[in-house]
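Narrative summary of target 7.
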Amino acid sequence: MVGLEALPLPARDAVVRLLCRAHLGIWWERRGVDALCALPQVSRGTLAALKEMRLPIGRLISDSVEVAVQRAHALHRAWDLGELAFYGTGVRDVSALAGCAALHKLVLGFTLVIDLSPLAGLATLHTLKLYRCCRVTDVSPLADCATLHTLGLRTIARLTDVSSLARCAALHTLDLASNTFTHVSSLAGCVALHTLDLSHCYGLMARAVWKLAGCAALHTLSLAHC
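Modeled conformation, tokenized:
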């Protein structure tokens, strides 16, 4: 990869595509991010092709998973990527993502993230998936994500309070399935809420659910096995 940044754009595109297709399992995970972060430019066609390959940006072999987050942040800044995924990694600290101003979709499922406050400043965040993030206890920072449309909080054992989500003015789809909280009446304040999944939330209070009738935009409500 030495000298890749010096190649003319068409040649650089060809090399990047070849390496990613032929050595995805080894080259990308061990050297790909380091090399690609250093590139000053790639064509739209190459970027689209890499996205189609669903490259595992968050599953990098590195000295630590936190280095993986930092490298992904660098890649995001270099290429203005709209999506990042760290599903199933040991990531704990996502503070390096606070500067990803154009981030549209973020997947953090099955990670060890605790503090969500670095995500509060993501001005264009549309979709956030935090499935089985067992250490998350506070989702209030997400109330500052003005463009948050789809939020997945399924199976978060320590999550007992979702009242702060009422301040998410753009929230359209909310998955809260398989959680242990008892009250969701505050979600009636989600003016744009269209789809809500509360299935397998065994502790829900009936009177709290009835208050969801105040959600004028609510179209689909799942209460299976409640």
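The mean pLDDT is 76.
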